[in-house]
Design a protein that fits this description.
By secondary structure, the protein is an alpha+beta fold. It contains 4 helices and 8 strands; from the N terminus they run ββααβββαβαββ. Strands 1-2-3-4-5-6-8-7 form an 8-stranded mixed beta sheet, sandwiched between helices. Helix 3 (102-117) packs across helix 4 (132-141). The longest helix is centred in the middle third of the chain and has 16 residues, at 102-117. The chain starts with 6 loop residues before the first strand and ends with a strand. The structure holds coenzyme A. The site of coenzyme A has 18 residues, from strand 5, helix 3 and helix 4.
């Protein structure tokens, strides 16, 4: 949906995703398909259509991630209900920025926005057990495991959550 949440934490700034970056996001996402539950290749037309639908959709907040004013990735908060939201679609272009921990800065920044500006008191997420960098990132940000399940291909997904500290 159209929104105007934004924030900064350490090396990253989060701003609403705008159309000029959806092609960057598509290309990056297609390079990391195996990390996501929907792992199909995304075409240019499908991305444009997804973005137009997204703008009309309630309850879905997509952010661009910038470091030193360069677009380096994206993250989302969505499906918010009764104060609980989902954190997801985290992706950082490691070819643009070799430094470690940019995903952690991004995750902390998104959690801060959720808890201190968006009225959210708990965030949940899913990560493939095989996705060590993402799993480590979430543990470092303070998410804890709440359960495990298998996807339709038998791959293990870890459910995680973090609560707002009042
Ligand atoms: C997840 C992601 C955002 C993390 O980016 P980042 O913060 O730059 O990641 P880092 O390089 O700092 O790696 C995070 C941790 O994983 C470790 N790591 C990275 N690759 C690894 C590997 N192949 N095996 C084991 N550990 C690995 C790093 O050493 C680091 O651990 P440390 O903090 O203890 O040193 C990035 O990898 C990404 O965009 N991945 C593709 C999309 C994705 O998986 N999204 C999440 C979907 S749930």
């Amino acid at each position: 949906m159209k929104h105007d949440y934004s924030g900064t934490f350490k090396r990253v700034s989060l701003l609403p995703l705008t159309e000029e970056y959806i092609e960057n996001l598509r290309l990056l996402r297609n390079r990391h398909r195996e990390c996501f539950v929907f792992s199909g290749e995304i075409s240019h037309d499908a991305q444009v259509s997804w973005y137009n639908n997204y703008l009309e959709k309630e309850n879905d907040y997509v952010f661009s991630v910038f470091a030193e004013n360069i677009w380096i990735g994206s993250v989302s908060i969505y499906n918010i209900s009764k104060g609980i939201g989902e954190f997801g679609r985290l992706i950082i272009d490691k070819t643009l920025l070799k430094e470690k921990g940019i995903g952690l800065d991004t995750t902390i920044c998104a959690c801060d926005l959720a808890f201190n500006h968006m009225g959210i008191t708990e965030l949940t997420l899913q990560v493939y057990e095989s996705n060590i960098p993402a799993h480590k990132t979430y543990l470092k940000a303070g998410f804890t495991e709440t359960g495990r399940e298998c996807d339709s291909n038998g791959k293990t997904l870890i459910n995680m959550a973090i609560k707002k500290h009042f």
